[in-house]
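Holo prediction. Input below; ligand is uracil.
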Amino acid sequence: MDNLQRQYLEAMGIQMWESRDGSAPTSPPEVVAEPAISEPVVRVAPVQAGKTEPLHLDTSSETQPKSAPGQAPELVPEQRLAQEDDVALLDWNALQSRVSTCALCDELVANRSQTVFGVGDPAADWMVIGEAPGTEEDQQGEPFVGPAGQLLNNMLLAMGLKREQTFLANILKCRLPDKRDPKQQEAANCRTFLERQIALVKPKIILLLGKVAAQNILSSDQTIGHMRGEVYYYGDEKIPIIVTYHPAYLLRAPKEKRKAWDDLKLAMSVYSRQAGA
Ligand code: URA
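Structure of the complex:
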């Protein structure tokens, strides 16, 4: 492990202990010892991502069961299909422009200062997907700029990635009122945009942060605890997907950082194989 990586792991909240005689650093119990990439047990769970509706959405905690479905007015199927067909043809600039003027969800439109499209390298190997912009993100127009974003930056740096080398996006492009969960229809309305972003970025790997992102993309109602530790695949291109805890949750439950680092090591390992394939 080099010094820089050690610093970022420490910044992520994973401390390394130096022995008094100056021998190799070890980790205290409950923290990750080795950032070296070990061979993962890859359990493949193919998903038809991009084709199915999300099952439910709930962000009350990373481990709680699901909430009731949302109540936003539904697009009738013809409207939804027209929107999908149309968005699937947009280039990057046109997509950005379309997102910025989206008015599909009345409550979110009324609540937002601006949409938050995403940030980073539009040709990134790594795509990182969170839930929805918070207050600071809504004001700045950029995802993950608050405290959770700071932790995410350190998580990425611990993997040897600068934030700007990745593309960061969210399931929703609009801030949610009162920190409530996204409604099912809101996520469905925004999904076309995210699918187009993925199609244009063509990432080599997708990292899903938290339950909302994981449940939506994987069309699952499982908890993060059940979903993490496996490799899933997105769409016909079979882009590998790794699920981990949301950094906002890790700020509330720092003990889970150990597992999050395991997830990131799995992601690095899968990415190395993918990039070398
Ligand atoms: N949480 C998210 O899921 N996304 C953001 O952009 C900020 C906080």
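Residues 130-134, 137, 143-144, 148, 170, 248 surround uracil (CB under 6 Å). That is the main takeaway for now.
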